[in-house]
Q: What sequence folds into this?
């Protein structure tokens, strides 16, 4: 206790001196969190020498001297596996790093020369940058705090398109047979909950993003615990609230409602209380291209998931979050990742599309005076740009190696600058391929606009 | 908060009425915890009908009517996977269930007819039996609470025989090169810690049991967290305590010491505080035969591990445990498992050997007035007893199927009734084979003396 108080105090003082910054990195699964963090650490480690960070004034001016890893403050949080990630990229053939599961952390001590020098010419300063990585799915659980089990159940059952419903069909049949008033059968509830978790996983495999509750996808040590064994009850749709409230604690309804409350109190709240409210800056990664590739229902699903996710950054006075946790994130970046998977002249469209996807939440954030920037980037560039001669003149193309080890030269298509309409989907105008990382040639990892993101997120602290 | 208070109150009242009992099951890895719990649940589920529970008076008198699974009280603890375990036993070929990792829980509601009937003939009573399963390795961490990092480091380095030291050799070389006063290098410490955890795992594979810290073997969600990345420092052996205390927080020594303290406070203590002090009864399972098979160093190692483990049940007034957590276990069973792997006339020796192994701790417990019973049992009997004609007359033998699917008829050897001396080990008088479970024929699982253990642990609550 005393120790953690001392630590809090030290942290406060360090922050006061602008020498400490907690940067959170998130994104829905497969958005490229691990690649982003790996490249970010890599660029800062190489900052003084080989890194190309031209979009970062501190680096361009030669004031960024480098960074080293130091002991992280939270001993109970897994360390971000940077070395393992680099080993994967250096493999033969190069592989994308294993995705992290749950949270991870890494502290860098960045050394720089302040822009305003003091009398001593050799003066350098240090910034402790705490990188904190967590699954974007956990943010999808925030609205759950505003529900009780009954309203949550109804809202989940009302949502979802045709393909989502098809994936839930088996679970739905099993759940529909449950009588809310009947005595709960442990084994039966575990079975139906298993089907629910399984359908969430299948939906994620199929490219859906708007999946709740988030912890069902990465249960960790809670695998098999009753707190992860609730689900919406179809029979509640027409049910009377007062009647339900009178059901005994052993009933199916009361059992599932108790688990829902436990999830709120012991899973969702602790994440916001212990971690989220300590973040200073945040970047949210979005795989826009993947969703574009997957078709209209999944694209719409991503849009909804992002709208939900962005609620965690809306600090309007009336927001649930502000009232509960008083978070302090004062700068936000939203990045469309994997920009190297389309030709460069499409990048502006990619950013525009991201902004269109997030139009509503971005307006809310700007209204709430949270500085936010949308951009497109590639944390680790896996392709090279070539020109191909065509009838109409030279045309840009990408050269890269697919995950199946096939070397290809492709033009993936045009990214729409606005939310795609029916005609875009009908034309199937987009053929996005997944590439594996290119073999490394030493030095810093190649990237696209990671430096721009970095400058937005930490540049002001390197003055 | 209010909810958990209500729960605590309900629990207290239930306990007051003798209608609730929390039975903890533990044992070092491979001692047979999962088989024990599976069979225990299976016997109680079948109690009214096919189960053979003759050593349990309540069952013999026909007063035990059966049991059903009900909702467990701790929503955040994984449910013991009974159905999966039964599915493994019913496989073709039958398999032993997957071992559980970490803690798990299951609540049975046992229905019985009280021995003293009331006026109403049909009166039945119910006992809620909470089964709680946890790794015995966690109890090996208790003495760690009595150490600081320096004394722990020295005690670990002083222990262990030749084979243990050989397994630690690679780690020891790496650790010996670390200067306690040098600035800690995160990556280097992670590497050396990795070697340490790896050597603990190798030691466990090789049949050693006395392994600390216990959580290094089953890290779960803490995989990669600094709190699981400490180890003894060889360079501390001759070091001066006052000098060490003055080292800065970034030093190797201070970094490892901080992690050690975090482990004490956030790993060891919470287990005792949140779980252990709530146990009413406890059974400790011991694989004596496996250790006997593995030779003198491992047998001695098991003996030390058990002595350490038993400290958690010694409630003498001066004990660390009593002072810290006021536990309330009022009855203890120690069982040598896998008794079906030797012929029946050896069972008495097996129990005697277990008592010899635990002579010191058993004396302490009896002195402290904790009722304790030692016995041998087979939770799920995998062999059948046959007689083989020999020159000297008929001899008992075991018929069973080995894990490699070989049907054998063997006499595994004589179990010594006392701690084996050098001559026993030289003769190599023991050849214990691992058998796979026999195909089931429906009904309750076959067992040896599981009913005796059960009667000792819960019989008095079924009066």
A:
């Amino acid at each position: 206790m005393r120790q953690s108080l001392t630590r809090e105090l030290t942290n406060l003082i360090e922050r006061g001196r602008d020498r400490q910054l907690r940067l959170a990195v998130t994104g829905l699964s497969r958005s490229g969190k691990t690649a982003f963090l790996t490249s970010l650490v890599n660029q800062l480690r190489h900052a003084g020498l080989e890194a190309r960070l031209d979009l970062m004034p501190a680096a361009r001016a030669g004031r960024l001297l480098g960074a080293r890893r130091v002991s992280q403050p939270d001993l109970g949080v897994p360390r971000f596996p940077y070395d393992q990630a680099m080993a994967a990229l250096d493999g033969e053939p190069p592989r994308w790093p294993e995705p992290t599961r749950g949270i991870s952390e890494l502290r860098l001590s960045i050394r720089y020369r302040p822009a305003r020098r003091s009398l001593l010419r050799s003066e350098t300063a240090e910034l402790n940058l705490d990188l904190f990585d967590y699954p974007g799915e956990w943010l999808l659980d925030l609205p759950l705090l505003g529900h009780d089990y009954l309203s949550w159940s109804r809202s989940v059952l009302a949502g979802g398109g045709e393909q989502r419903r098809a994936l839930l069909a088996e679970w739905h049949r099993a759940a529909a047979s449950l009588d809310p008033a009947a005595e709960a059968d442990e084994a039966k509830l575990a079975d139906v909950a298993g089907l629910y978790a399984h359908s969430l996983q299948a939906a994620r495999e199929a490219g859906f993003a708007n999946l709740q509750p988030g912890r069902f996808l990465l249960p960790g040590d809670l695998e098999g615990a009753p707190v992860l064994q609730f689900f919406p009850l179809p029979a509640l749709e027409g049910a009377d609230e007062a009647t339900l409230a009178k059901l005994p604690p052993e009933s199916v309804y009361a059992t599932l409602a108790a688990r829902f409350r436990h999830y709120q109190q012991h899973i969702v709240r602790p994440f916001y209380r212990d971690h989220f409210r300590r973040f200073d800056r945040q970047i949210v990664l979005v795989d826009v291209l993947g969703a574009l590739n997957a078709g209209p229902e999944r694209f719409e699903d991503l849009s909804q998931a992002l709208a939900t996710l962005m609620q965690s950054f809306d600090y309007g006075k009336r927001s649930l979050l502000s009232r509960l946790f008083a978070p302090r994130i004062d700068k936000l970046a939203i990045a469309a990742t994997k920009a190297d998977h389309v030709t460069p002249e499409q990048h502006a469209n990619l950013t525009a599309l991201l902004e269109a996807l997030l139009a509503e939440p971005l307006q809310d954030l700007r209204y709430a005076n949270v500085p936010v920037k949308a951009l497109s980037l590639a944390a680790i560039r896996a392709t090279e740009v070539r020109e191909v001669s065509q009838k109409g003149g030279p045309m840009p193309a990408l050269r890269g190696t697919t995950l199946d080890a096939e070397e290809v030269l492709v033009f993936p298509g045009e990214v729409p600058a606005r939310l795609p309409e029916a005609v875009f989907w009908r034309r199937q105008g987009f053929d996005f391929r997944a590439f594996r990382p290119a073999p490394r040639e030493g030095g810093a990892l190649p990237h696209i606009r990671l430096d721009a993101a970095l400058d937005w997120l930490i540049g002001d602290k390197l003055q």
User: Anything to note?
Assistant: The radius of gyration of chain B is 24 Å. The CA atoms of residues 210 and 305 of chain B lie 4 Å apart.
